[in-house]
Amino acid sequence: SDDCELNLNCPPVYVEKPKGGYAEGIETVSYSTFVSSYAARTPVLYVGGNDGMLHGFRATDGVELLAYVPSSAYPQLQSLSSQNYAHRYFVDGSPTAADVFYGSQWHTVLVGGLNGGGQGIYALDVTYPAAATGVTNVSGSSTFSEANAASLVLWEFTDRDMNSTSSTNTNFDADLGYTYSQPAIGKMANGKWAAVFGNGYNNTNADGAASTTGNAVLYVVDVQTGQLIKKFDTGKGMTSSPNTNTPNGLASPAIVDVDGDEIIDYIYAGDLQGNMWKFDVTNTNPSQWDSAYKSGSNPVPLFTALMGSTPQPITERPEIGEHPEGGYLVYFGTGKYIETGDNSGTGQTTQTFYGIWDNGAAVGNSRSPLLQQQILAEVTSNSELWRLTSNNVPTWTGSTPNKGWYIDLYNTEGGNTNNYGERQVSNPILTNKRLVFTTLIPAANPCAYGGDSWL
Description:
By secondary structure, the chain is an all-beta fold. It has two helices and 31 strands. The chain is globular.
């Protein structure tokens, strides 16, 4: 039955020997010593499941080494034994693994969310999965066992206070929604290693810890403790939605180090209202971290994606690359595939892929300064279907340079304007000066295979 299958929305994460590649001087303890000490570490495959658990399987033979039930998923486990069970999500998000430094030692941590399964982010210390010949436990991390569970689970960040006895607890916030945002992990300018994630969706759900604004929010939390370092509130929520009562939400962030010191300088993330945000975290004092662009005291997005006056939702992590004339190109597509009605190919707003030039000023919400590319035709060659696209040349200099480019996701051949519900809902990849991304066209028949995709 599908209630105990591993979740296809939660791609597995493979963790073996440390591969962070950090410089020796980034911390007071040698990173290369950590790497060499754990060179023979037991490789583990981590994946979430709709049985309510994050599983850790030994990669060599599939033996399960770890099963963890996040507290946000725990209350729903009873439904699995119901004779009237209907499919629901539990640990639905793909985690992020990284090497980090805290407590005077290096560690490998795993930080993940629940996607549609709940409103929570969890963190585990997965430095030392199992005793093995030739592996030295230099960081004091415990092996995976029930007896050591308390030291393996670092923290959870949820939408409500899970420790009401502590007046200083900050690992919760009511603006946290269903945690579709995949966390990013890195070192901040204040010296702390942090998990960075958007607040996800539907944070106004009437569950006793509802957001009052529905705003899109970014969190930066201490990777050791889960305590909040900084909350960025974009101010864009229910009141700025087209119907003035639909909550907004921030997607997965991209962290950027612009000067090569392995410390996060800027964070980019998009929201359901088409806003692509840039956050400046270059100051050593977190109280000085802020939206990179502002109007008075109000945060301003780098760009707002609109089709006419209709917002184009951004639900995936952007990709960032250098611009040939300085600054950065921020690449992202629009569209969503997360709620009722999204699996229809008809009646959908045209979605777009953008490359926006961030050269130190907000671009606004107009397409007029952007270069348009188009899908001109679809042709069959060697039994394969191809798309012919335009190759318009941008103007990056002069008095009126292009501020980026865009391509609407439908075939314009013969004056066609039907988009068939095509949207971009996967993370783009920038490699060898080429941007690679896929699009999705859902099947009109819900009993079909799911739809088509373009690369």
